[in-house]
Amino acid sequence: KQEVTQIPAALSVPEGENLVLNCSFTDSAIYNLQWFRQDPGKGLTSLLLIQSSQREQTSGRLNASLDKSSGRSTLYIAASQPGDSATYLCAVSGNTPLVFGKGTRLSVIA
Amino acid sequence: DADVTQTPRNRITKTGKRIMLECSQTKGHDRMYWYRQDPGLGLRLIYYSFDVKDINKGEISDGYSVSRQAQAKFSLSLESAIPNQTALYFCATSYGDRGLTDTQYFGPGTRLTVL
Questions:
Q1: Rounded Cα distance, B115 and B102, in Å
Q2: N or C, which end of chain A has less CB nearby within 10 Å?
Q3: pLDDT band with cut points at 50, 70 and 90 for residue A15
Q4: A 28-67: CB under 8 A from B
Q5: Among A43, A51, A103, whose Cβ lies nearest the Cβ of B109?
Q6: Cα separation, B65 vs B43, whole angstroms
Q7: Does residue B54 belong to the interface with chain A, where contact is any CB pair within 8 Å?
Q8: What is the average per-residue pLDDT within A54-70?
Q9: pLDDT band at A40; cut points 50, 70, 90
Q10: B residues 19-48 near A, CB within 8 Å?
Q11: Residue B39: pLDDT band by 50, 70, 90 thresholds?
């Protein structure tokens, strides 16, 4: 059974800092890995999707990497802003639809 | 208008009542999903449907049933609600012709409270 772990569970950083969120998964037989953002009381917004054959994806200040063999992904956020404050969720798709981690709650302090 | 809509957005009900949560989408996607989110447990898959004639159980299907009335509509039912079904419920959609490799798009969620 696929299990997804996200570390840390919560993170607080000053504005402008670069930061890394971590995601690990137990079964490397995945089709893709997605990073989502969730604002309090809101739905999920897809940030980046990395296919299993890819190593990384970039969108603006966000960069996600995937090391399928070691079961790890990182989400790098450059020059963090208060508007980046949210919960970030990692999810993997394999033989069944998405399996989610519990998320990292990020607070960016102005 | 939102691409994936859920009704109701909030619902308070009593133990034993039958509840239906509805999801509709205008994205033209074949695949639809129902998840629940609980504090400390993350999102877990309840049911998913790859087309109108296809229904699959997810990780936590006990106590729930679904109906795919049309390509654009996917309903989740709680036949006899119990307090531990109190959670935030999300519907999601994705394309069907790209295997399991495509992005899922989420609705805004339904907050259900069972007293």
A1: 38
A2: N
A3: very high
A4: 31-32, 34, 36, 41-46, 49, 51
A5: A43
A6: 18
A7: no
A8: 95
A9: confident
A10: 33, 35, 40-45, 48
A11: confident
